[in-house]
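Backbone-to-sequence.
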């Protein structure tokens, strides 16, 4: 077993003595512009961990030992080793390669060019290129077109006003190798308006599995607004995948579109795409979505009523309303966007809608596996002669209303079931009734509704959700999406960090649904029960609480390990995204020891201030109370926590371009804390995009851990919050 030469192996013992089987997963695709080959391996609690070096730890390796991945001193390293050219150009053939580029190009000049191009292609997505740099990239286009990892920068080098360059780019794209789909997402940003580039990106997205594609729907719906055509390749692709997998992709896509219908600039386009998807589904699945729309409308109606109800009577009013709602059957309806108050009616009232719906009725519906017609597939070629090319500007101002659904040949929906509801959060959340006595109105200015349902699965636990008003839950959804992607990256490297990845779905402007994690409690309540305000300064409340629910030694060992891993994950995750407002009611722990964060109204380093005073001064939340659960600040368990946190931080840095790009795709979504490129600058800092050394980044995060642990204002904030919210 090899280990990092700069890390004391005594610190790398198992978090607990009992060894566990390593989590096995497929290899992680190479990051956008980083070498994804893992550093030296070691074992932490039975997991294969890639540990970055720490310059402060002693070097235990013998000087005569050849470590894996290091160069032999007797061999002269290539000047292009570690670059995008390492597999293309060897030192021996620099001269011949120079002649291919230009007859008068010297090897010295060529080497300088290749190294500069490598540097440019590894820049983060937010760094702009100068005209000189663009000329350099374009000059090597015939060689770069073979390297998909360079495409985001190469395509920006094309002069959009030069028809010769555009024509050559279009020709090259026909034979260009496909990019990994995660990389291709950034080509859908507004910086790439060329329709051929966007069509190429969609061809790359086909490689996404359904689960991965579903995790990126938040951004894919946003970038639809950059498409000049109603039925652009991206729209066709999403409609097709939604119909082919209506449970995993279809329901989520419909709700992401639904949540944006209030915006005038997307109202018509998104309404038509929803109609296209619904036309391709079974009537029963369409009926389920209508039932979800009706459920959301009822919750909006209830929230409106609660505005006039005294706080002490709100829960009583909620339960009375739910009792009446459960006893009332739904009526049959045709789904036309706009019939429920959360949709729009104008989408079907234009001639553009008429033409597009006629096409989608015959093309999209026939591609559905449930359709009665012969199956076919949607064409991703926007130039297909059968697809009406309708620019947004061609919509007539005086379009005639469409006839009723029955006259237009659209199927009439069956009545939704009065005893069964599939919750909008997930197609796997089927419920058969409301447990009225467990429902309540939360103590908040916006009256969030805590709703508990009987699980349709007789062996399943009750399902609880929180219906929130007044907050733009797209920001929560974006943050939780980042956590999910981080968790996926770590698991592919063999690390299960025991994260609690609950679901969050925006359903409209400033409203949405959040999944409630069962068997969990806020750290604020745990501290209150341990001494009120004084409990915020004690070290023992969390550990004693875990002991209460894990009396057996083996269970407590598991809970402690879960806490260590999850705490490392959320320290790294919240720091990278810059999550703010981290008081003890926004941090929770499950009875099995898994720590997690909730409520993400502040991110990208937007810290709440009282005048000039920053309420939060630590890089992330890490208190002596947390360290005590791991064994104390000087314990081997806490040393293992630090090594694990620094390691997984470096794993994320290898994919920094992905995280920055996903935030950039949301730049024009209207999020209050993501409105300009200045907001995105935080992530360049948190991910140390200007630092190439893993050992330097490792040591930097190690210092952040020490800083967070020693920041006493965190516990003071906890105490103040308990004082302000004693109940």
């Amino acid at each position: 077993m090899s280990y990092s030469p700069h890390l004391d192996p005594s610190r790398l013992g198992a978090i607990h003595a009992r060894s566990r089987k390593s989590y096995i997963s497929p290899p992680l695709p190479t990051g956008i512009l980083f070498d994804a080959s893992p550093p030296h391996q070691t074992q932490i609690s039975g997991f294969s961990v890639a540990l970055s070096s720490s310059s402060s730890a002693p070097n235990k390796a013998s000087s005569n030992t050849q470590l894996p991945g290091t160069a032999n001193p007797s061999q002269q390293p290539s000047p292009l080793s570690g670059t995008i050219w390492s597999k293309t150009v060897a030192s021996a053939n620099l001269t011949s390669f120079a002649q291919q580029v230009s007859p008068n190009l010297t090897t010295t000049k060529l080497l300088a060019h290749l190294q500069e191009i490598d540097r440019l292609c590894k820049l983060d997505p937010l760094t702009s290129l100068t005209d000189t740099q663009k000329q350099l990239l374009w000059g090597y286009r015939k060689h770069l077109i073979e390297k998909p990892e360079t495409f985001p920068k190469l395509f920006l080098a094309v002069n959009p006003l030069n028809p010769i360059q555009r024509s050559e780019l279009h020709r090259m794209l026909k034979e260009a190798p496909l990019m990994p789909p995660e990389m291709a997402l950034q080509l859908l940003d507004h910086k790439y308006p060329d329709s051929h580039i966007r069509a190429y990106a969609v061809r790359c997205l086909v490689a996404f599995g359904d689960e991965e594609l579903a995790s990126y729907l938040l951004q894919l719906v946003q970038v639809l607004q950059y498409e000049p055509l109603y039925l652009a390749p991206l729209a066709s692709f999403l409609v097709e995948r939604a119909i082919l997998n209506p449970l995993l992709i279809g329901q989520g896509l419909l709700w992401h579109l639904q949540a944006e219908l209030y915006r005038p600039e997307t109202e018509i386009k998104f309404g038509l795409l929803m109609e296209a998807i619904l036309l391709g589904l079974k009537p029963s699945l369409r009926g389920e979505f209508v039932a979800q729309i009706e459920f959301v409308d009822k919750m909006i109606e209830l929230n409106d009523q609660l505005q006039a109800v005294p706080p002490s009577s709100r829960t009583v009013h909620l339960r009375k309303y739910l009792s009446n709602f459960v006893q009332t059957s739904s009526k049959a309806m045709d789904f036309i966007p706009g019939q429920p108050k959360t949709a729009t009616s104008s989408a079907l009232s234009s001639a553009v809608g008429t033409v597009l719906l006629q096409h989608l009725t015959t093309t999209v519906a026939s591609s559905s596996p449930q359709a009665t017609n012969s199956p076919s597939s949607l064409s991703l070629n926007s130039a297909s002669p059968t697809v009406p090319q309708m620019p947004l500007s061609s919509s007539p101002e005086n379009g005639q209303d469409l006839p009723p659904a029955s006259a237009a040949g659209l199927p009439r929906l069956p009545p939704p079931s009065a005893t069964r509801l599939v919750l909008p959060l997930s197609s796997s959340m089927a419920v058969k009734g409301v447990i009225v006595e467990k429902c309540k109105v939360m103590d908040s200015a916006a009256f969030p509704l805590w709703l508990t349902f009987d699980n349709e699965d007789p062996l399943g636990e009750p399902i609880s959700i929180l219906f929130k008003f007044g907050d733009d839950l797209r920001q929560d959804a974006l943050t939780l999406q980042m956590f999910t992607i981080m968790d996926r990256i770590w698991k592919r490297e063999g690390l299960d960090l025991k994260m609690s990845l609950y679901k969050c779905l925006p359903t409209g402007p400033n409203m949405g649904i959040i999944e409630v994690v069962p068997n969990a409690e806020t750290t604020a309540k745990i501290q209150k029960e341990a001494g009120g305000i004084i409990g915020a300064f004690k070290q023992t409340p969390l550990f004693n609480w875990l002991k209460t629910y894990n009396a057996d030694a083996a269970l407590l060992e598991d809970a402690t390990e879960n806490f260590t891993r999850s705490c490392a994950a959320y320290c790294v995750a919240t720091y990278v995204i810059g999550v703010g407002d981290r008081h003890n009611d926004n941090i929770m722990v499950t009875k099995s020891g898994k720590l997690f964060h909730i409520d993400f109204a502040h991110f990208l380093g937007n810290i709440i201030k009282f005048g000039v005073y920053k309420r939060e001064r630590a890089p992330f939340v890490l208190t002596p109370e947390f360290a005590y659960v791991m064994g104390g600040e000087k314990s081997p368990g806490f040393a293992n926590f630090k090594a694990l946190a620094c390691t997984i931080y470096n794993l994320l840095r290898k994919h920094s371009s992905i995280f920055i790009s996903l935030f950039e795709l949301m730049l024009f979504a209207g999020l209050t804390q993501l409105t300009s490129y200045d907001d995105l600058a935080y992530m360049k800092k948190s991910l140390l995009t200007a630092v190439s050394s893993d050992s330097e980044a490792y040591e930097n995060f190690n210092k952040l851990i020490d800083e967070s642990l020693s920041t006493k204002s965190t516990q003071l904030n906890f105490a103040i919050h308990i004082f302000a919210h004693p109940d």
